[in-house]
Each structure stands twice: as C-alpha cells, then as structure tokens.
C-alpha cells in the first residue's frame, strides 16, 4: 500500500471568530480528508482567556483546548453531512489589538512531529511567517503551500502613512514567502504578485447555502414569490469592509435612490461611527447586529450589495449567489470569479451602481444552473486546490548539494538557492532579537510561549 499523505493546515484564526481564515481552512481540512486517502491535521491558534474575551463573540470562552475542539467539530458537523476524519491541534497564539489579528507565539512548526511533516498548508503565509523564529518551514516540511487570503496592502494603505507602510510591506511579504513556501495560491488578482504564485479561487461555500438556493429555485419553478425583501449587506462593521464605499455611494446618489431601503447587518469596532453616518442620509438605512448569513432572516432578500474592494474573494458574496440572490459589486479583481454568474452585476462608476441597483430591485434573479452551483461547492474547490497545489504529483525541490566550486562557476540554480538560504538565515537571526521584533510590530515577549500557555497546551515549560 502506498503511504498516505500527511497534510498539516496551519491557519491564523478559529471559530467562534467568524472570519474567513477560521471558516475556510476548517472546510478545507474536512473535504481533503473526506475520501480517507490523506491524513489531515488542522492547526489552529489557542488563546489565553484574556484574549478569548476580546476576540470571540457572545462571551464564548473555552477553559481548555479539548473544549474548543469540541465546539469547532460540532459547528462543522451541523453544517455538513460528511464524516469528519481530520485531527485538530493547537499552537500558542496572542491577539494583537493594533493589527486586529492573532499572531503565533514561538516556533509553531513544532506542533507537527518530524515523522509526519510531509505537506504544510499555510493559510495566510505572510501572516504566519512575518515573525517566525525557529525551524524553517521548507526545512521541516517536504512541501509548503501558501494560500493568500488577505489583501494586507489595501488595509495598510488606509492607515496613517499608509502608502509608505504598503511599500515596505510588499517587499517583506515577498521575502518571507520566498524563503518559506514552495508554491503560493492567490485566491484572486486583488493580492500582490508573489514568488511562485498562481491565481485560483480554492474556496467553496457552506453546503447550507447551496441547499437554501435549491429551495428558492424550487419556489421559482412553482411560480411562488421567492424573494420578497429588498437590499441588504452583511459584514464585519469596520470601515474597511465596504461600509465606507457603500455610504459614500448612497450619500452621493440620495436623490436617484430615494425609494431604496437598505438593511445593514454587522458588529465591529466602527459600529457607532457607521450608525452616526447613516443617520445623516435621507435614506432608509436600518442597522442590525451581525448574525449568521444562513439565518432564515436573510432568505427572502433579493439583492446583496457589496461595494468592498479590500477582500480577496468575498465569502458573503459567494454565499449570496449560492442562495440565488442578485449581487451588486465593484468591477474589481476580487470579484473576477463571480463574473461568470448571470446574477452578479458589476459596476465601474457611481452612476452605473445606481442603474444596476434599480434594475436589480425590479427583477427576479435568474435560476442558478447546476454547473454554476457546483462551482461554488467545497467539492469543486477542493478539486481545484488539489490540482493547483499539485498534491497528486511527487514533487520535491531538486537537491543541490553543498559545493566548494568557485563562485563564478556556480549555476544559476545554485546561486538562487544559496541566496535564498542566506536570506532565510538573516530572517531567522533578526526574528530572534526582541528589539528587532518589536521594531517590526511583533507583540512583546512572543519568542516563546509563557509558562501558563505551556501548561494549557501540554508543552514543555520554557
């Protein structure tokens, strides 16, 4: 019998934080392990109670990793009909309020034993390697695949001195990915160009959304009104998630859209500011707390409006299309995958946004074909991932032995590999200096997990 592949999927977030890097890697693990031909381990961050209280919604906290794992598994089991055959393990993490992100603590490659260190999938590879200090990913694992989820450059540009920060971040991302990944999958062209990268949307939607869409399709076939509500948007309520663009459009074209009513659903750091700005408009804008997009409350909406240009591939847009709705979004690289759907309307200007919004509110969505519905599924997304990640190919980097040949007689491949090795050594050296780490934005004292974190995760004490 051939040896099973061991795939370790490392990600930067976990449920109950409902963010893309918590949900999508979870589904990827489940579907990669579904046929039993691979041994899959999902590696997610464990947070101290203090950080859990900041990050997780509805005051949900976990006293130990096993309770957290049980929550994650139950959530997934309720949304799929597949037998869960993957493992879950945890790495120590800390939440950065400044970056609004969870960052690894210590050398998280140690969570996977050397004997099973076959393939690593880094969900957000730049995020996982910015401050990584320890064994190099490409040394530990035979093959390392990065999946780029987030357009960090776009977020940084919106901060103070954003374009200067983005200039340096672009080169840092290139650097850490080059020395740690064999191949990189960019979900869309909205991300920066990266070494050894390919563009492919390898994400699907929760099967529940496809079931909702099929139920709506059956209603349409029976001649029943399937979509009786108007327009809405759902997303974390921070300005960078499309709320700024949406309110600017509604403000500029209030007269043309005087009959429009928009319901906004979201919770986040900018909730109060969004509410205040919405009150100033002469339009009916109702603001509600965030909730699960699969909630029956959303089933009857006809139009999903999403003007965001910071996403790489917007999960909620895919979910809305799966439910059979009309979607209005910007003509932007992040939405290229959705342009194949007749129910997706993309606009290039504010006037075109108004025209398409009024058009969408006056017509019924087209029934989604079986072929297009299939492209939104996690089965199809997993097939695309296996293909572009070349998981079924026996690929390894060509071994270039150490040599004492004169510098001028080295081949280009040997020179490239030598420069990369030197670059990796430099990064490992700098990332091990506390002052340098802090200068580049790392959380203080995250070179190694503290005694309490080690105790909670059953690690050797520092």
Automatic annotation (TrEMBL):
Its EC number is 2.4.1.241. GO terms for biological process: galactolipid biosynthetic process. The keyword NAD does not apply. The keyword Lyase does not apply. It comes from the Eukaryota. It catalyses: a 1,2-diacyl-3-O-(beta-D-galactosyl)-sn-glycerol + UDP-alpha-D-galactose = a 1,2-diacyl-3-O-[alpha-D-galactosyl-(1->6)-beta-D-galactosyl]-sn-glycerol + UDP + H(+). InterPro entries: DGDG1/2, Glyco_trans_1. GO terms for cellular component: chloroplast outer membrane. Keywords: Chloroplast, Glycosyltransferase, Membrane, Plastid, Plastid outer membrane, Signal, Transferase. GO terms for molecular function: digalactosyldiacylglycerol synthase activity. Residues 232-335 form the Glycosyl transferase family domain. It is found in: Plastid, Chloroplast outer membrane. Coiled coil: none annotated. Belongs to the glycosyltransferase group 1 family. Glycosyltransferase 4 subfamily. This is Digalactosyldiacylglycerol synthase 2, chloroplastic. It comes from Dendrobium catenatum. The lineage of its organism: Eukaryota, Viridiplantae, Streptophyta, Embryophyta, Tracheophyta. The gene is DGD2.
């Amino acid at each position: 019998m051939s040896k099973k592949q061991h795939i370790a999927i490392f990600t930067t977030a976990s449920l109950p934080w409902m963010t893309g890097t918590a949900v999508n890697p979870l589904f990827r693990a489940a579907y990669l392990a579904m046929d039993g031909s691979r041994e899959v381990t999902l590696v997610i961050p464990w947070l101290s109670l203090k950080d859990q209280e900041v990050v997780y919604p509805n005051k949900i906290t976990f006293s130990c990793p096993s309770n957290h794992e049980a929550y994650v598994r139950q959530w997934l089991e309720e949304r799929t009909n597949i037998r869960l055959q993957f493992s879950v393990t945890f790495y120590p993490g800390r939440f950065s309020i400044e970056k609004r992100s969870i960052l690894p603590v210590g050398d998280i490659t140690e969570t996977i034993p050397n004997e099973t260190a076959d393939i690593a999938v880094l969900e957000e590879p730049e995020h996982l390697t910015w401050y990584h200090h320890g064994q190099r990913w490409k040394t530990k694992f035979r093959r390392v695949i990065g999946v780029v989820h987030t357009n960090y450059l776009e977020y940084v540009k919106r901060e103070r001195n954003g374009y200067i920060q983005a200039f340096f971040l672009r080169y840092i991302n290139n650097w850490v990915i080059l020395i740690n990944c064999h191949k990189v999958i960019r979900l869309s062209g909205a991300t920066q160009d990266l070494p050894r990268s390919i563009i492919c949307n390898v994400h699907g939607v929760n099967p529940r959304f496809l079931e909702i869409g099929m139920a709506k399709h059956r209603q349409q076939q029976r001649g029943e009104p399937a979509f009786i509500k108007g327009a809405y948007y759902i997303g974390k309520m921070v300005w960078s998630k499309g709320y700024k663009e949406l309110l600017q459009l509604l403000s500029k074209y209030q007269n043309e859209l005087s009959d429009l009513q928009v319901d906004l659903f979201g919770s986040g750091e900018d909730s109060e500011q969004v509410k205040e700005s919405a009150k100033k408009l002469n339009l009916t804008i109702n603001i509600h707390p965030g909730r699960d997009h699969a909630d029956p409350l959303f089933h009857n909406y006809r139009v999903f409006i999403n003007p965001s240009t910071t996403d790489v591939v917007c999960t909620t847009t895919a979910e809305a299309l799966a439910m059979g709705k009309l979607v209005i979004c910007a003509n932007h690289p992040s939405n290229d995958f959705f342009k194949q759907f007749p129910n997706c309307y993309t606009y290039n200007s504010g006037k075109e946004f108004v025209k398409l919004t009024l058009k969408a509110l006056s017509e019924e969505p087209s029934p989604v074909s079986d072929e297009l519905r299939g492209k939104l599924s996690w089965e199809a997304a997993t097939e695309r991932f296996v293909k572009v990640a070349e998981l079924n190919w026996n690929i390894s980097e060509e071994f270039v032995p150490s040599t004492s040949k004169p510098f001028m007689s080295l081949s280009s491949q040997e020179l490239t590999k030598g420069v990369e090795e030197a670059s990796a050594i430099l990064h490992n050296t700098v990332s091990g200096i506390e002052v340098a780490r802090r200068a580049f934005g790392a959380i203080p004292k995250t070179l190694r997990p503290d005694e309490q974190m080690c105790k909670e995760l059953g690690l050797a004490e520092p």
